[in-house]
Design goal:
The structure holds two protein chains of two kinds.
Chain A (H helix, E strand, L loop, with lengths): L1 H11 L10 H33 L3 H13 L2 H12 L4 H24 L3 H9 L4 H31 L3 H4 L5 H9 L3 H29 L4
Chain B lengths: L1 E9 L5 E10 L4 E5 L6 H8 L7 E6 L2 E2 L5 H6 L1 E4 L11 H11 L4 H14 L16 H14 L4 E5 L7 H18 L2 E6 L2 H7 L2 E6 L3 E6 L1 H6 L4 H7 L9 E5 L2 E5 L5 E4 L3
Classes of the chains: A mainly alpha, B alpha/beta.
Chain lengths: 217, 270
Amino acid sequence: MDLLREALVWLADGGNWAGPTGITARLGEHLMVTAIVVALACLLAMPIGVWAGHRGRGGDLIVGIAGAARALPTLGLLTLAALALGIGLVAPVVALVVLAIPPVLNAAYSGIATVQPSVTGAARAVGMSSRQVLAQVQLPLATPVLLGGVRSATLQVIATATLAAYTSNTGLGRYIFAGLKANDYPLLIAGSLLVVVVALVVDALFAVAQRFSVRHR
Amino acid sequence: MITFENVNKTYPNGTTAALDVSFTVPAGSTVALLGPSGAGKTTLLRMVNRLVDPDSGRITVGDRDISQINPVTLRRSIGYVLQEGGLLPHKRVLDNVALVARLNGASKADARERAQRMLTLVGLDAELGSRFPHQLSGGQQQRVGVARALVGEADVMLMDEPFGAVDPMIRRELQAQTRRLQSELGKTVLLVTHDVDEAFSLADQIVVLRTGGSVAQYATPEELLTNPADDFVADLLGLSDGARDLHVVDRGGRALVTDGSGRFIGRVRA
């Protein structure tokens, strides 16, 4: 319990929050890396998943790719990427994007594909073009599922973005790595606590957004 | 006017849904496609707005061969009442109706105004317009479906088992309203039903289809009752087992009418 108390004391010390390596700055970096990674993953995976769901084909391929990508160990991938791309932020971003793609891809595909055929059929029958069905029927109805995919990708990235500190001087992972190296367990615990709190807060925000995105029932 | 000329359709799984089907829906009249399930009724209906394309044969709407018309353009020019309403669950009732007017190029304000008028026309309170479809009863949703089919001011209307999902009392009410609207608006209507009473109640002429998608008889209700083409038609209409027979019985000088199962359903007026 002493370690935990020391960690809390460290967190309570205003001096630790200020400056370019303070908690506020690290928190900002962590969230920035997360946002960049999730945005890239969405940019890459969302159009593919949505298109496949809209055409109602390629589902097996999507599930296969997502499953395979999910099986990749992120730390190993990060090491490989760092070897190829060098020290810095690019390698962890690449590794984290690979981590974030499967949940987004799966959600985009299944969210669109599982909109009731009777509803899309009716939209087509009254004269909506294929694009209108996608934009005005499938996307709005699939929004909660799409958000769910982004939510689970974001949480995984927040937790795993600590690894960014492995190859670059970035994010809340710095405290964890520094604590490990110096056997400063209160610092390590403080860093972990910060990651946990950020994850919980962001998850709660997504939960609210998801609730508001349900357009009916 | 809608015409079918020697239309055939066999699905990839080998099911024949249309076998050399020919008939005409004269402008301003209502024709019902009546038959058991698997007779291809809905397939024929969906061919009219190109949700299904025939393997061979020709279909015309208002003298135009529909295979030459872009499917989306064609669908916007035809009103469609779907089974169980077919409303978009995430749009408010008024927007569901206005949507079709919007697709036909109406401005937002104009579309909403027309949608409001259509809701009133089918007997719905204005306040229901701001609700979501699932907040309405089945009968109300069906009325919205009819309003949506009317809002585009199409001359041709398709109805796919429009009142199958509502209870019998509401169904009779909706059928009466449909007849009333039809006498006012004079649309060319093609209707799918497996309910003989509904076909008799709404249609000027009935296309009786048999399993396998061929036309057993195309005639007015009067002709069907007088001269059913064969046993299949007679069975389907309930003429073989007496289900559709009415009997006049005398009760103390009053002539009463009983139905096929002997229940009293009315009296004879001299």
